Amino acid sequence: MRALTLLCILSLLSLAVLAQPVLHFLEQDMQRAVTSAALIPGGRLLACLADGTCQILNSTGGVEWSHVFVGGPVERILAAGSLAYLIDSAGTLHILNVSSPGSVSSKRLLKQGEIGVSNAVISGDGRFLVLVARYYYDASSRYPLDRLVVYDADKGARVYERDAFSSAVLVRVFSLDVWESFLIAETLNTSCHLCELTDNVIEVYRLGSRVQKISERQTGLSRVKGVSKGYLLVQRALDNSLLLLSLPDLKLVAEKRDAPPMRQVLPLVDGFLMVSEEYDLWRCSFTLDCRKLASLPPRSLVTRLASYLVVFSIPEVQVFSLEGDRVVRLARYDVRWDTAPSPPSLAFPGEDSAAALYPSRKLAWLKLLDRSKLLVRVLDPDGRPVADAIVRVFSENYFKIVTSGSRGEVVLEVKPDNYIVEVIKEGYSPWSATVKVDTPFYNLTAVLSRVVLRRGLVSIRVLDVKGNPIPGALVSFEGASAATARTDEQGYASVELPTGEYLVEVRAPGYRSGKVGLRVDVGGVNATVVLEPQVSWVSFVVEGGGPVGVEISSGAVSTRLNVSGKLTVSLERGLYSFYFQAPGYTCRSNVSSPVFLSGDANITVKVVCERAELPRTSSAEHVVRELSSRVLSSRELNVRIGSLQAVLVNGSVVDLAALSSDKTVVVEFFYTQCSGCRDILPTLRRTSAMNNTLVVSLTVSPLDDNVVLSGYIRENNVTWLVGWPSSSGILRSLNITSYPTVVVLRGGEVVFVGIGAKPEEQAHDGASPIPEVKLPSVLSPLTELYTPATLITVGLLLSVIALLVGGGHAEEEAKDSIPGDTTFVLTLDDSLRGFNSEAISQHAAKENSTLWESWEE
């Protein structure tokens, strides 16, 4: 109830200040006269002094950077993005990166005969610096002339000059402005002081590597100029008439005669603001419909701060909002004087700031605050820091809970607003305060009072929805004190807490968090929290509509679904494998199995099924026929086996012999580093698409753990089951020593065994040459005699001999027995194997090999 009341008060306070901006006002009296200043990104101010010192000041007045320029004081500062261009009295350009102040690059702008820079502007991208250089026409000249110069900062050279020696004579430059990629200059081509009123010309140049004048208009001397939305507003000094000219062609759009003489022009979205010589504020539209809005203090300067107006005057700084033709004052700040007051001489806007220079040492500026640093210091009655106190800071749109460190301090970055700050520490009375954060740095001290606490034992039991205890759950207590505990094997967590109101939150992996409120008394309290399982939503999307059979497998549990178009299911946290089957089609998805679902994210499984090339059949004969053409050595037989158990990557244990009672089961024995094993993969992929056929790949390598197999599955787009034999006895009972070996089971019997694999491109003709295999360098002494080609040739010759010797018995053998008079075939060590050699070197002819001896019954 207390917190609700505080929030209501906070909401009212927020509404009270909602209409006005949050501003920070700062005055800075510099040690020496300021020769130039400018606002730079971050609400900072770059000021240069008469002794050549330049400093970057932050919004609290602190000096972030300082540098002394020995060539002379900096007279002009031009800012463009993160760069500041400083021009000193000697005509040297200094370029400073204000985002990371460090070294300064300098270059002299003036050439021989030029004596200084009287004016300068910079293009918006910072590339083109336009300046007015002063020079004497000849040695007898008494008055200097102006030279218009465009300097390319990227090239470090001048790209344009115009002066009295040019074909288009230029004598004086009265003003410079930049609009988009254009330069606007007011010039005169004759040395006639009286001619200025009538002969001055406004010119527009296109800036670039080749500067080009594209328009001009004779207007006479202008009082003020301003640019807004592609229009140039000019007031002629001769008759005070206002001219609205389009840019860049300088065509006359509107004209207004008998306007009051103006001293300032500020652009608006829909027109212009002007300050008259009488310090009246006027607003003019683009049709030059002008209206007087208000009267300003005498000798004041006006500038923009975001959407607000800032008026700098001798006694004060005022902030106004412009609402149509109404000017509403939002804030005012007094200007303090230790010396004789003087009016502002320069006002300049920034991205989120506005500043003014009062001659000759005072700087005043306003910063629009969007972030503040809130420092909360927690102390005991003796002034010592209180560590590990809980500090809660909240407002209508903000909530944060932190603990004080060993120094008893908390620093938060917040938006300027009204906040409630609460501090809780066991053994101390609660502390709270409502504060208005309206400065860049706000310091708050909380002094806690000691109290004697009564305690009670709290016992929390955490169960799942089935009533089973959840061990290891994290139980957090927030309220009169704070504590955490974890549940034991029975789901219990107990902790002794000071009496009072608490909010208990319980979190456990795989479950949604649960909360319960309770009151702790001296007698203690018990509570039970039931957590619901955390689920992920899995959407199966079948391209082409379906239907597709989807098997979702996790551990020993499998669920089969039929999906047409789209189906979304919820799955609890765990490791899942997805299998897809559609009669007559080969299906694949964008998700590689197995996939871990954490419960805090949803996934979409896109299934694409393509019509299979082979007839999809449930006949074991078709499976055997397909495999026979793809392996190097094979045998058809009928031998019953008792059990063939495998552990799949999803954790489930299956008996492949039992599964073969109603389907054809194809078992591949392989290992991931077997290069020849990859040649059988296309065949297994086609076989897995056959109707009523199950394909399982079992690795025999102890190095192939779950991570390695998952990578193998993704890399080779394996869409069938993958796992490990339940024991090495399976390999011994089947006498499997070469890889890959493919075994076909049907009705609990082994009906086919194939060894080795032909590359896919060899499968059709069976006559492609076997590639030469290079031996590892460690066996180089043997390479001259035992080369892979030699060993392969020997193996093939022995296979032919075996066929000649033992082949005559093939027709006499019964289907239910395996002969024992087989011919021994030389086997190669794995270290000698290369591409496809695992299968070639270890497999004999189709019907004669010691590999079959163990199949006799």
Please explain how this structure is put together.
The longest helix is centred in the C-terminal third of the chain and has 19 residues, at 788-806. Among the domains are: 2-13 and 370-447, Sandwich (Immunoglobulin-like); 109-220, no CATH class; 455-531, Immunoglobulin-like; 535-611, Immunoglobulins (Immunoglobulin-like, Sandwich); 620-855, Glutaredoxin (3-Layer(aba) Sandwich). With 857 residues, it is mostly beta strands. The strands form 15 sheets. The chain has an eight-stranded mixed sheet with strand order 55-62-61-58-59-60-56-57. Strands 1-32-31-30 form a four-stranded antiparallel sheet, with no helix packed on it. A four-stranded antiparallel sheet has the order 2-3-4-5, with no helix packed on it. 9% of the residues lie in helices and 47% in strands. Mean pLDDT is 84; it is low at 12-18, 762-794 and 798-857. It contains nine helices and 62 strands. 33% of the residues are buried.
